[in-house]
Amino acid sequence: LPVSLSDFTHLSLSFPVRTNNSGYSREAQMVQQTSLDRPRETWSKKMDFLLSVIGYAVDLGNVWRFPYICYQNGGGAFLLPYMLMAVFGGVPLFYMELALGQFHRSGCISIWKHICPIFKGVGFAICIIALYIAFYYNTIMAWALYYLLASFRPTLPWTTCSNPWNTVNCLRYLSTDSNVTWTNTSTSPAEEFYTRQVLQVHLSPGLHQLGSVSWQLALCLLFIFTIVYFSIWKGVKTSGKVVWVTATFPYLVLLVLLVRGATLPGAWRGVVFYLKPDWGKLLSTTVWIDAAAQIFFSLGPGFGVLLAFASYNPFHNNCYKDALVTSSVNCLTSFLSGFVIFTVLGYMAEMRKIGVETVAKDAGPSLLFIIYAEAIANMPAATFFAIIFFLMIIMLGLDSTFAGLEGVITAMLDEFPQLLSKRRELFVLGLVCVCYLGALSTLTYGGAFVVKLFEEYATGPAVITVVFLEVIAVSWFYGTSRFCADVNMMLGFSPGLFWRVCWVAICPIFLLFIIVSFLAFPPEVKLFDYIYPPWTTVLGYCIGVSSFICVPAYMVYHLLTAKGTFKQVRKTAPCLRSQTNIKQPCVHTAPPSLLSLPLMNLSSNKPSVCPNASPHNGTERQCQQRGVCVCYVCVLVIHLC
What is the pTM of this model? Predict the structure, then answer.
């Protein structure tokens, strides 16, 4: 059979090997490679990978955002659209990224030379988005660290109104205080501690005048980034050990807080409020938009993390089972967090003799740093519960930061191996310093306004658009037939019809639905009593476009630098392509034999091996002209919107 050496670059030699107690075979740890490239680091144990993925997916949003979104959109009725969006949108995207990363063993930039080179700008956009997230996400951990350090005292500082930062409006409101009258201008000691002592937001009139940097928060953030650096500087070998603590400790704390919350008076009021279904709200478009956005940002495809983590797996690791297990754990954690939050909110409502909906009026960091912190302060053994709670918040954030920066590091090291592979420690140090300097604006007196701006505009729309282009490139350009053949080569079975339909049609519609909804119904950005002026909306969109602009910019660069005249390049754009056939994918035997590689017969009804299923075939397939037109139209429509 006339084949070349490059035809075997994604096939792994299979020899009888012993399996050690790490869960991976000795072959997997030493010589398991899917290409003839330089040896690649692998996870020491299978659990290192699983805990890293779970730690990345289960973040602060699971604790503060899901419970609020759930009760706001119909309580128990919200679980129906949430599960539908997870099954038909979130999990297929999660599975696709794990399979892509494991097969091509590349980060989010260099992987595109195997799939569709003209889309390489997507990888650069992902890296920029990851940096934007690092600019504000770690600041929330700095706030939590400030709270943690303030908790090491007999009386928590946000319990009383006798502190230097308190105002005349401060009022400790409990049902036992019969002489206390709560007014519209009254503020709780927990709220004043958060806004006037930690954030000091009263010293900034808004985004136009942020004020000075808070040196206390600057030191807290420096400590956070120091932990991050020494956890990821050596690669997944070190971070895989750290997540055994940072990914498991939050579950222990959640269980402790759940048991404690269930024993508080009024806890069941909160649980009923959390789960009581309002089926009428399912007729509202907002409920479905929130469900789609929540599952997307909860599972986290499109940030380059899943590609990076999966690229360190052995070639024949069962990423299908990993995707189902980790995504299920993530969804169950969100559901569990709702009980942890609302048992305490029910307790607060019982103490104040008001409705739960009045207590649960805030989402985001305020839910944790004001409402939950105040509830903890009024519990017996308040110091203990405050310490473990804010330690949990820090560890939830650390896992996501490890993952986000590892996605950038893997992408850059794979793209520039000669320059960076032997200088990983220095590169990681430089990256951490850049993230710290970029976060200084969030440490000012008006830093909370910057955090909110980044959260609403800098990452959300851009990353959804990036994932939309990613799934289009894989399903329509690279082709589901070739992609399913790749999966079959790794796992020994091909994805079923459900997964192929999701990748080709449902996932693009799912993502387009979120994009259009965001553009049609932009969120009203408000923090405390500050309403963001119109010019901040323009600024936010500019920040978001600054990352996404890499996609069309690289397309133009790729077409201009390609060989041949522009007319020839237009007609045959250099991009791998196969027929998008969701009914009959190509089927490989797994692991394939090096001596038996049958060619694909397109007219046959029998499953066969795709020719050159590996993208490393020495020559690139050529995209048809309509492929480039689709690409240009998508980019043009998004920019016009």
Answer: 0.83
